[in-house]
From TrEMBL:
Subcellular location: Cell membrane
Any one of the GO CC terms: plasma membrane
Full protein name: Putative membrane protein YccC
Organism: Motilibacter peucedani
Transmembrane among keywords: yes
Membrane topology reported for the UniProt record: Multi-pass membrane protein
Amino acid sequence: MATGTVRSLVRQLAAVDRSLLLPGAAVRAAVGVAVVLVVGVAAGSPASAVAAAAGAFSVGIASIQGAYRSRVQATVATSIAMALSTLVGAFVVRWEPLAVGTVAVWAFAAGMATAFGPPGTVVGLQAAVALLIAGDFAMTAREAVTRSLLVLAGGLLQTALVVAVWPLRSYAAERRAVAAVYRALADYAGQAVGAPGDVPPPRADELSAAAAVLGDPNPFGRDGPRAGFRALVDIAGRVRLELSALTHARARALGRRRDDDVRSIDAALGQLAVDLGGVADELLPWFPHEAQPAGAEASATDGLRPSVVASIEALRGQLRSAARVASGLASRNGPDAPRAGSSQLFEISEPHLLPPLAEPMLALRASWDLRSETMRHALRLAAVVLVASLLFHTFPLPHGYWVALTALVVLRPDFASTMSRGVARVIGTALGALVATVVAAELRPAAGALVVLVSLCAFVGYLIFRANQAIFSTFLTGYVVFLLALVGLPGRQAALDRLVDTAIGGTLALVAYAAWPTWEAGRVRERLAELVTTQVAYASDVLEAYASATARTGAGLARTQADTRRARASAEASVQRFAVEPRARRAAEGDLLDIALAEGVIAAAQRDAQALLSLHARLPGQDAEELPQVAPFVAELRRAGAVLDDALRGRPRRHAYPALRAAQLRLAAELGDATVHRRLVALETDIVVDALDTMAHLAGVIR
């Protein structure tokens, strides 16, 4: 176990996901840091350069969040928060009890800010870091105000650089996001060819990310290209449905040994993969890519079931539309693009100059509970930083704020992040502190050389920010050491001091988490219950659309599908975190959940989703036949969902689990096989019932 853990840790420390490198953002943000350093040093005020660069660097981290307006919102919020924190830190440092208490309050606020997602996490963390660093320097009131204004100026310079590149980006964010959607769909179609059985439904992560980018558009963009990108996302949503239906039909043909059908579907999937990849390549004309085979003939569909033929033909039509729109967007200022259709499968929010407050306040209110992950993280963080501050105020630790700083960046809300990313950050911080301090103490670089070193560390830190935490922490620490060296080169003892401080801070963070952990075992049941509840709601909406023409509205289905997608992502992430927690902990909480149950529910939910996506893809039109026989089955489905919700949450069951299989058999008999829609509903509800009954068996509801 120990050897495997060490190997896994080493792999994590060394692994760099090149797709997550940020060269463009790194250049822009590093230029912002370099500019304030050069101006400050050239003006003969290294201290001013350090203050402004502190703001510029941290706001550069914030500038990696979001796309356009949301990015500016994050950078402005970080600039203001850091400036205020610098001012407060400079004033409270004179009174140690007040300083210690203030640091704890800031740490608590930083922990609670994680409720607002990645942007809130960045703002809260950088504000707490600014307070800690400011508290290490004695300043007069005038110097404190000046320094806070310089921090604000550095941050606002980064904000100005963010805005300055908008007219030059030629919809780069939109192109990358939408191209990633089509590349993921192409990969899915290609991987399904020759698969030995059913494949899980295609993930919607890239679609969700693209919808978020399009909901935060470039203010300098034109309406035509914006409409084109929205059309491509809508087309991709329908392609995802049809691909899921097609791979599901392939698995069914494989199980029934209809080899000719499997070969025909594989041929269609292979060509669709090529066409989807072609759309992705068309959207990124500046990237070299392999030429797609030209003039490929459509695969034969003779002998295939009508629903399968309908999926293939629908996919071909959607891909032709996508290719036309992508071709129009291929140039910098492409022609106005038509919308893909009236029904949006992915809701794209309208942009706001100021961020809407309703949703963040709801998230904060939900987190204001001792049982919530966010509240426990905030209290843990405040306690650790409080102890760290007491240590460096009580004992003679040179630059002891480094203890609290290390604890602040290591501690994370969940076990997996704290132990994997936390250890990576400790190792990276220790390595960066050692190397940078030795370089600064032994080589005694001049101010110009320090400016170059700081700028280089900033560039690499930005570049690697999302790709590798250990390397990021190494260069982040190097940046801090070289930056502070501008106002006083460290002595030879400083390297050892910082190593000791890093070890103390990292140990404090890990011990604190071990003393009061937030185990995923306590939350995974709730996440699984939410998945089942939202998936049953989605199934009910889809089936009601077959039962009644009045229920065939795209907006309602889009909402329930989006809820299901989010719940599935949350549940899968929760199960993954639960799986890596110590076995002893899982055994201790075995009355709450067994890992086999959790993984089994996820697998059953994937089968259920595959069937529902197939039904959604073949949704009847407004003038199509209504199937009222479906309504009683939907009622039974809802009752089953309520029972499963109680069982997975560990609550007493309010109702008996219904006889779903009997209800489905009655439905199939009543529907018959006179039309494609009747056959499809009978076929797919069989899989839905199998999935829900499997969950019920795993949860101990039925035997």
